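2.7 Reproducibility. Because tokenized structures are sensitive to small changes in the input, we list the exact sequence used for Probable dual-specificity RNA methyltransferase RlmN, including any N-terminal residues retained from the expression construct. No trimming or masking was applied before prediction.
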Amino acid sequence: MTSLPLVFDAPRRGLPPRHFADLSPEQRRQAVVELGEKPFRADQLARQYYGRLVNDPDQMTDLPAAARELLGKALFPPLLTEVRHVETDRGTTRKTLWKLHDGTLVESVLMRYRDRLTVCVSSQAGCGMACPFCATGQGGLNRNLSTAEIVEQAVAAARVAAAGELPGGPVRLSNVVFMGMGEPLANYNRVAASLHRLIDPSPSGLGLSQRSITVSTVGLVPAVNRLADEGLNVTLAVSLHAPDDELRDTLVPVNTRWKVREVLEAADAYASRTGRRYSIEYAMIRNINDQAWRGDLLGQLLSGRLAHVNLIPLNPTPGSKWDASPKHVEEEFVARIAAHGVSVTVRDTRGREIDGACGQLAAKA
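Resulting structure tokens (single pass, no recycling of outputs):
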């Protein structure tokens, strides 16, 4: 079995130079002062970056040319370079492959729905959780992303949407989900910092609603407890994938350290502190975890809890032995869960035509 990291926050090895999005409001003011500028320049930069979505200092026309050159070089190094993007669903779903400063590849997915615009961001390059059915997990962990590398994915999505590049005309980014490449809570400090950049009101951040941000985890119990103490009210999503420890030990290897009961207790504690219902993510895998009795067991486990089940038709990777459950099996599974009074839905399967599962586009590249 692949070994799992003992720490949740790897050192800064390989991360990019400091970027404006890495910095809190106080750190921004300190940074511009250290560069010889007045503290108010930090607020000007924030209005440009988080308000106008500008990351090219040459376009920050409310700053003197000399300040643009100085501050731009120091605080806005290029972090993400688009390798390519692919589209489906008549252009309303766009997956982008990004190259980072060190050549590392990561992905984000932008999805326009009738009532919202969601971007799915990566928090790590690769993943160390070793779930065998996941394209990212098959490749292992390369490194953590910096706070700014995470935020830049959301800002880039907001820029595309505001420019009207998606069908339906200009629209504001409304939702962010940390369900791309990586285990977000294994990069805890930078993910937590990026959450503040996303929810802080303009001009300090993008000003998104906390309720519209979802952070997923395979169940790093100490990190879930730590997130509960942050004072944030983002949605927690637990990638469970099996209701019994025997199977989950295989599908989600971290379960050998924190069992299903411990994971659900941590999620319950999060729900109690935040008042927010959490989501149970469950990939439906043919003949592996889709038996009707497992649906009953999952319903029994969650009955009375502040939880919602989100069933995910598996998006199989090329050459993989794992496949999606048949529709009639999925429907029976839904019925078994619902019979216990548990809320359950099936995720909209977007992106199958464009290697929509996490890691597939990067693996091809």
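The longest helix spans residues 147-162.
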